[in-house]
């Protein structure tokens, strides 16, 4: 029993307060919040990247994420690939799918009003969901993971997979940051994001950058999906669940800002897990989204706004 | 102008064709209505219910349909999607009755059923409501045109409370899903637990469909040190929640609401981790005289990739009973006449159609059989007899 190792209370029931080892409970919830924040961050990164570079709120991002989960699932169950190669395969598949989506759906709309791209993204979302239901049915599926063991970190409980999600979130955030800031290819994305006209003046091909951005964003979604699906479930509507939260996260962080997305993810996650822990699980979304409203009322452009 | 003419004549032709078609059909085909979730999160559930009805209809039609009043009739299922929404279910039911003349409408969710009970006796034309939901309130609406197929969930409260309290203790933690069904279940079971002398701890209901990770809510619930936890929602998220509890060292019992099914939960969680869990009777243990033939015809139509479950089998039995009632009533259009013969139809349903041994129909329209549940007791699954609530 984990509560036998509580830091303040002894193991006897009701020995202090309502019998809760308070400090221990706080850190357990902190760990839970960290897992949740990593999940939100992983999904929000790709969304922020596409919005930041191209100004498209990609409502289909959650569904690309769902396709990523199914791709990994297929790789593991049909091709019998081990976990990590399955993830790489899913990332490659989704990168290609993302590039195709950009080329077929969004590029023809680049000169059209912004609302056209939004409608296209929503249409894409329903299309992807219908295709997923056609291929895989509506069943819930479980992505097998070799990292299913429970780890006891100084009395705090997490599964290996949850720790991998946290680690992977930080690795992927770091890698994306490095790519955008320190590589030539990444700099071209930054350049287009800052000034599409200026970028084309110095010879950057905006079409290629757009394809690249969608490929990276979708690949990230696939990586996120493979990591998260092992602690959650795979089903055709799984994209909706994370999409709403991911949008809240990037609005909170400042539309299109990568550091903002990361900060927003952890703020939302901690608000949710601590309000659930100390107020009530029924109010966790109320508190989390209430906080969102308050932050936006004070700083309407979000926490991190790109300097223009 | 020419184009307009072509369009006009095309319209006339289509109109003629469709009315002619409908007329030809209504002479010998009985339309059976279904409104349920066919897309969205509960699509699989709705499809299973639909499959049960379809399976019965196919079988009836292959054998030449039914005869009523000296005439032969076959059946046709008309399905509309309501995405689990009560308001959509109500609109669908009206459409089914008015456009397709369905004397019977199947609905597999309590919200929709309660909405339809508001008007199924008053609508013109009236319709018989075939309800697949365990919500006891369905029977309290004084609806003379309802046929409730599954066992009501409050049947389980007393037996499950006694078993779990005896083995694990008196402290009950609440972690059900946040749907209307989950709330009703939670308050009903809490009452039963309290009246047996138990203590009900804080409410940690959580939306099973939108929660990405259950660890947080489980930590919260465990901080109250429950002996037994009430869990339940769709099977797979329920299994994840139970897994999170076991991962965090919880050793107590689980009361699993009847929406969650052992056969699905066991795919995520090994039996050892389910020890002390009570839940509804799993389909693979159904022991009625007709269960083998049911499995055979299911596999013949749908193949082996998706196994049948209680959703399919209850609606299969229900549709068969309704068809028989039409035959006994010598009437295929009047829901009152059909309902009047339903108890006889259930009693005389051939054994080959009974995947569970049926015992009849209550005056309120509730299907009866020897109700059982299941408990995981020190590594093995055991049956529990549940006394019927009338």
- Corresponding CATH architecture of the largest domain in chain B: 3-Layer(aba) Sandwich
SSE run of chain B:
HEHEEHEHEEHEHEHEHEHEHHHHEEEE
> What's the CATH C level of chain A?
Mainly Alpha
Give the C-alpha Rg of chain A.
21 Å
Overall, the morphology of chain B is elongated
CATH fold description of chain A: ABC transporter involved in vitamin B12 uptake, BtuC
Helix content of chain A: 55-70%
Q: How many strand units of chain B?
A: 15
**CA distance, first residue to last residue of chain A:** 54 Å
Biggest sheet features of chain B: 7 strands, mixed
List keywords for this structure.
heterodimer, A: 308 residues, two-stranded antiparallel ribbon, 11 helices, globular, B: 390 residues, alpha/beta, Rossmann fold, 2 domains, 7-stranded mixed β-sheet, 19% strand, elongated
Describe the structure.
The complex is a heterodimer of chains A (308) and B (390). With 308 residues, chain A is mainly α. Chain A has helices spanning 22-54, 61-77, 83-106, 114-136, 160-182, 184-194, 196-201, 206-229, 238-253, 258-278, 284-298; strands at 150-153, 156-159. Chain A has a two-stranded antiparallel ribbon with strand order 1-2. In chain A, β1 and β2 form a beta hairpin. With 390 residues, chain B is of the alpha/beta class. Chain B folds into 2 domains: 2-153 and 288-369, 3-Layer(aba) Sandwich (Rossmann fold); 154-284 and 372-385, Response regulator (Rossmann fold, 3-Layer(aba) Sandwich). In chain B, strands 8-7-9-10-11-14-15 form a 7-stranded mixed beta sheet, with helices on both faces. In chain B, strands 2-3-1-4-5-6 form a 6-stranded mixed beta sheet, with helices on both faces. In chain B, α2 packs across α11 (310-329). Chain B is elongated, with a radius of gyration of 23 Å. Chains A and B meet through α1, β2, α9 and α10 of A and α2, α7, α8 and α9 of B.
């Amino acid at each position: 029993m984990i509560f036998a190792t509580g830091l303040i209370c002894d193991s006897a029931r009701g020995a202090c307060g309502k019998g809760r080892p308070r400090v221990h409970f706080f850190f357990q919830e902190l760990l839970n919040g960290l897992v949740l924040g990593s999940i939100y961050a992983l999904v929000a990164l790709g969304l922020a990247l596409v919005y930041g570079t191209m100004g498209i709120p990609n409502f289909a991002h959650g569904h690309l994420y769902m396709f990523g989960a199914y791709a990994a699932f297929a790789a593991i169950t049909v091709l019998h690939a081990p976990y990590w190669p399955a993830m790489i395969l899913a990332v490659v598949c989704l990168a290609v799918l993302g590039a195709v989506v950009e080329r077929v759906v969004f590029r023809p709309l680049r000169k059209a009003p912004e609302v056209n791209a939004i409608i296209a993204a929503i249409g894409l979302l329903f299309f992807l969901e219908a295709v997923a239901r056609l291929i895989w049915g509506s069943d819930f599926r479980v992505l097998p993971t070799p990292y299913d063991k429970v780890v006891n970190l100084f009395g705090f409980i997490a599964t290996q997979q949850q720790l991998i999600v946290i680690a992977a979130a930080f690795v992927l955030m770091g890698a994306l940051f490095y790519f955008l800031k320190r590589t030539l290819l990444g700099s071209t994305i930054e350049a287009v994001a800052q000034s599409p006209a200026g970028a084309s003046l110095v010879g950057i091909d905006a079409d290629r950058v757009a394809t690249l951005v969608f490929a990276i964003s979708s690949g990230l979604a696939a990586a996120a999906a493979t990591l998260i699906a092992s602690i959650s479930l795979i089903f055709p509507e799984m994209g909706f669940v994370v999409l709403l939260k991911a949008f809240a996260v990037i609005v909170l962080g400042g539309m299109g800002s990568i550091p903002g997305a990361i900060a927003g993810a952890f703020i939302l996650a901690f608000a949710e897990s601590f309000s659930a822990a100390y107020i009530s699980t029924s109010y966790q979304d109320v508190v989390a989204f209430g906080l969102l409203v308050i932050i936006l009322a004070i700083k309407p452009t979000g926490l991190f706004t790109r300097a223009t | 102008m020419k184009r307009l003419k072509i369009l006009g004549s095309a319209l006339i032709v289509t109109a003629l064709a469709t009315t002619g078609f409908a007329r030809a059909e209504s002479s010998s085909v009985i339309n059976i209505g279904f409104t349920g979730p066919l897309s969205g999160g509960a699509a699989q559930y709705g499809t299973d219910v639909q499959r049960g009805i379809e399976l019965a209809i196919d079988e009836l039609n292959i054998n030449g349909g039914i005869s009523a009043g000296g005439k032969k009739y076959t059946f046709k299922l008309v399905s509309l999607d309501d995405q689990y929404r009560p308001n959509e279910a109500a609109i669908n039911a009206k459409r089914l009755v008015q456009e397709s003349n369905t004397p019977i409408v199947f609905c597999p969710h309590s919200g929709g059923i309660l909405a339809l009970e508001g008007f199924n006796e008053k609508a013109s034309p009236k319709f018989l409501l075939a309800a697949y939901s365990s919500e006891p309130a369905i029977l309290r609406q004084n609806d003379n045109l309802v046929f409730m197929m599954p066992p009501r969930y409050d049947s389980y409260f007393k037996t499950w409370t006694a078993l779990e309290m005896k083995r694990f203790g008196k402290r009950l933690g609440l972690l059900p899903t946040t749907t209307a069904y989950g709330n009703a279940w939670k308050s009903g079971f809490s009452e039963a637990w309290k009246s047996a002398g138990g203590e009900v701890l804080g409410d940690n209901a959580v939306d099973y469909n939108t929660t990405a990770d259950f660890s947080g809510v489980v930590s919260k619930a465990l901080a109250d040190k429950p002996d037994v936890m009430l869990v339940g929602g769709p099977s797979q998220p329920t299994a994840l929640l139970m897994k999170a509890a076991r991962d965090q060292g919880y050793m107590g019992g689980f009361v699993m609401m009847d929406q969650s099914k052992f056969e699905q939960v066991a795919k995520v969680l090994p039996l050892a981790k389910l020890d002390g869990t009570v839940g509804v009777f799993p389909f693979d243990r159904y022991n009625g005289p007709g269960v083998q033939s049911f499995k055979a015809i299911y596999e013949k139509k749908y193949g082996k990739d998706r196994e049948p479950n209680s959703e399919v089998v209850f609606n299969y039995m229900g549709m068969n009973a309704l068809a028989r009632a039409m035959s006994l009533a010598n009437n295929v259009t009047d829901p009152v006449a059909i309902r009047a013969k339903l108890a006889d139809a259930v009693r005389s349903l051939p054994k080959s159609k009974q995947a569970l041994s049926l015992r009849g129909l209550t005056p309120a329209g509730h299907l009866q059989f020897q109700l059982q549940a299941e408990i995981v007791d020190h590594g093995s699954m055991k049956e529990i007899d549940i006394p019927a609530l009338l």
